Structure formats: C-alpha cells, structure tokens
Amino acid sequence: xxxxxFEPITIRDLTVRNRIWVSPMCQYSVDQQDGVPTPWHLVHLxxxxxxxxxxxxxxxxxxxxxxxxxPQDLGLWNDxxxxxxxxxxxxxxxxxxAAGIQLAHAGRKASTYRPWDTTHGTVPASEGGWTTxxxxxxxxxxxxxxxxxxxxxxxxxxxxxxAAARRSVEAGFDLVELHAAHGYLLHQFLxxxxxxxxxxxxxxxxxxxxxxxxxxxAVRNEVGEGFPVVVRFSATDxxxxxxxxxxxxxxxRWAAEHGADLADVSTGGNVASAPIPVGPGYxxxxxxxxxxxxxxxxxxxxxxxxxxxxxxxxxxGQADIVMVGREFLxxxxxxxxxxxxxxxxxxxxxxxxxxxxxxK
Length: 360
Description:
Helix 1 (39-50) runs parallel beside helix 2, helix 3 (151-171) runs parallel beside helix 6 and helix 7 (245-257) packs across helix 8 (284-294). By secondary structure, the chain is α/β, with parallel strands linked by helices. The chain is built from 12 helices and 12 strands. Helices cover 34% and strands 15% of the residues.
C-alpha cells in the first residue's frame, strides 16, 4: 500500500524519499559561542536521519555573528564552521535522508538568553551579547531597542545570506531554508508593526518585501539553478495591522518568481502578546492558502504529531510536505512509526534495529 506521505518528491535536482521532514529546532547548544556545531548536534540530528525522515533541516543558523538568536546558536559565517558541518551532513546522507539548513538573522530578537536560562531578555555585552539591528529602531517587547539598519547594512545582510548559502553547498547540504518568519529580521521587514521605514525598504508591501527578495536573489545566484531554496514565512502576525495571509500569498508569489521553490508556512512570532489559537494542525490552513493563492509548493508545520494527520494533510493537497518538530523530539523514529501505522512498506529501516520491527 502506498500513501502520499511516503511518496518521493523532487525539487530541482534533489529527490527526497518521503514528505515527512524534520523541522528546524534551535538547540542553543554551541559550547564556545563560536557558532561551531558539537557532538550534540551530530547525535541529535543523526537520530532523525536513521529514524526515517525524508529530510533533516538544521536549526536557525546565523549568517553573521550578530544574527544569532543567542550566543549559543550555530553559525555559518566562516570556513571553520562550514567544515564542522560536514561529518553531520555525511551521517545524515549515510542514512538515506537529505540534509537542509535554515539560514537566519534574528534582527531585533538576537542576543537573547536561552529559553531555560533564569534571566530573560537581551544579553548584555558583558555576558557575550551585542547591539541588535532591525529595519526600524522599534524594540520587541522586553528586549533592548535595536539600531536601525542603513541601506548599506541591508545590502550586507543579503551578502551574508549568500555567503552562508555558498558554504552550505560546500558543506554538502542539499537545500537551504531562508528564515523570514517568527519575528526575525526578514519577517521584521515584512511586517508594518516592526518596519516603519520611509525609504525603498518600507511602506508598501512591495517595498517591505524588497529585503527578502534581495536575499532570495543573492542566494539563488550563489547556489546555482539545481539547488533547492525554501523560504519560511509567518503567514499572519495574529494581530491588527500586522502581516496578513493575503500579503503572504503575494510575497510568496514574488519569492517564487525570484527563484524560491517552496514556502514553509508558519505564523506569528513578531508580537509577544498576540492571541494565537494553538491546537493540532492550527497552521495548516495557512499553508493551504499560500499553496492555492501563490502557486508555489508548501510545507505545513505546527502541532503535527500523528501519522494519519500528516497523511491527510499531504493526501488532500493542503501542503506538499509536512515538517514535524516536537513529535520527532519525543520519538526520533517517528517517520518509521508513521510508516508502520499507515501500513507502508519502506526499505530504509536500519537493519541494526530489525528486532524492534518484527511482529513475533
């Protein structure tokens, strides 16, 4: 028996074995605050690959030092970091999965403490923090006021994303995702709530989308025509005056015209107090809306935790792929479990784990 969730998918020159992918999940686990991955990342990510995921997408990775969410985040702004990813990518590939990486700049939400730290807010310079930047000098609730980026700064941001994308290719990754969601820098440009500029990067939707589209252009130019590029969007700010689904549909359409292949559709993150109606699959309708309205393939995310739920999303055409986070943390072999629950025969369950799969 076949199911849509376990059908391969081809994006440009990449074919991925199924449509159940591991969502980028920040680990805040860099030891030396140098952006270099550690054995934790190898074990954490490798478990998902041997657990049957189609693609494993690494967490938000700073394209420049000041783009990290916390001082303990991964980075990809130098060659030392690039080389440290290679063993991780090689292991993911050895298990038959594709390897992706989410490239990010946190903007005004950078230089923060980790979620489990007892202190919250902006990390001061005395503790390894830095001055944050943003489209406008408007603070995120509870954080320091950022410095407004100049037009030259914005150009350098695009170059930073492009250089990180080039290093991603050199490290062996199969795809990159550009983070334009969850209140981070590119989302900050898209939202009128955080972008008060009056130049070519502010005001109209076309102007607010310019920074993102410049990044897409720069990345596509670096990685070539055969390499998949995904953009993660927050389809709504969940509050009056913020980004709307209709605007996201338009920006996703523009992104596709500039060379993006998939829209990974999430929501929220730019307004701390936004009332978000969280529940199983609560963001899936936004992925469906972008897919239908923008004519671009989509990835659905958000409390997708059951095999039949994931199958239904893909089989009914609401999205082309599902990305799963928390369920993979609970069970790194969730994809293998989903195949068993859906009665799908696959040939990539590790032989070392055969005893666990037999019925007798």
